[in-house]
Amino acid sequence: MKLGVFLVLFGGRKLEDALDYVASKGLKAVEIGTGGHPGNAHCKPDELLSNPTALKNFKNAVESRGLTISALSCHGNPLHPQKDIAKGFHDDFIKSVELAEKLEVPVVNTFSGCPGDHEDAKYPNWPVAPWPNDFQEILKWQWENKVIPYWTEWGKFAADRNVKVGLELHGGFSVHTPATLLRLREAAGEVIGANLDPSHMWWQGIDPVQAIHILGRENAIHHFHAKDTTIDPVNVNKHGVTDMQDYTNMLDRAWQFRSVGYGHDNKTWADIMSALRLVGYDYVVSIEHEDGLMSVEEGFSKAVQNLQQVLIEEPLGDMWWV
């Protein structure tokens, strides 16, 4: 496996400066935002798709520093019930796939999206309980009429271009657990896989190691994010894991995102890396930063240090006693 970073962390720096900084830390890969919520500070798909020289220069900027692009990321909600909002996220996804094909990047990361509860809805509706029965009816309608048809069509669009779709399992979206990912994958094809982020597993009560085994057995992990979570033992009993308070209200929240090693110790992260290796994942571990207690530079540096201690970057080969 290789250690990389989600380059949007350094969106305030010019592309070349950000790449230099990442390379100086010994990393081997970058995940680059191409639209949606991550933005496109370092990569303008319209420009690169229409200008072969700009495309060549962009690719050279990355490769000349000994880096590869692990994924293009355009996280958004292409199933949003407001058509103009959905179209913006959809267009970002389409352009990202087309650009990934030209750059020979194997994965585009995004969210599954979340529809409304009927055709004329204005806002997404994320059912989280089986009763009252209205929620079951909403969930059935969403999957049969929106989630599966969309990703069946546009998953094929990506597959035809030799690009895999890495859906981040994230609360608030239709695909948010290993089970929902596998449900969509069964319907829409193996082009659909996870951009697996342990931080979103922990707050849902899911053990990331077990999630890796569940998805890894199906070869359904396309990309991996490295971010931690800490759960406050007092606040969680007050607010529950579906805490709706703003992320900035850190003192009172039930849980919060942390840099790698500041929610769980290195043994836990070593177990995660070992599980990835066991199921055959041999791609990039991409550092993401959403830690409200650390600056980007501090959180990034701490994550690099902790992951370098536990990450096996190259296959071990044959065991001496075999």
Automatic annotation (TrEMBL):
<keyword id="KW-0413">Isomerase</keyword>
<dbReference type="InterPro" id="IPR013022">
    <property type="entry name" value="Xyl_isomerase-like_TIM-brl"/>
</dbReference>
<dbReference type="InterPro" id="IPR036237">
    <property type="entry name" value="Xyl_isomerase-like_sf"/>
</dbReference>
<dbReference type="Pfam" id="PF01261">
    <property type="entry name" value="AP_endonuc_2"/>
</dbReference>
<protein>
    <submittedName>
        <fullName>Sugar phosphate isomerase/epimerase</fullName>
    </submittedName>
</protein>
<feature type="domain" description="Xylose isomerase-like TIM barrel">
    <location>
        <begin position="19"/>
        <end position="305"/>
    </location>
</feature>
<dbReference type="GO" id="GO:0016853">
    <property type="term" value="F:isomerase activity"/>
</dbReference>
<dbReference type="InterPro" id="IPR050312">
    <property type="entry name" value="IolE/XylAMocC-like"/>
</dbReference>
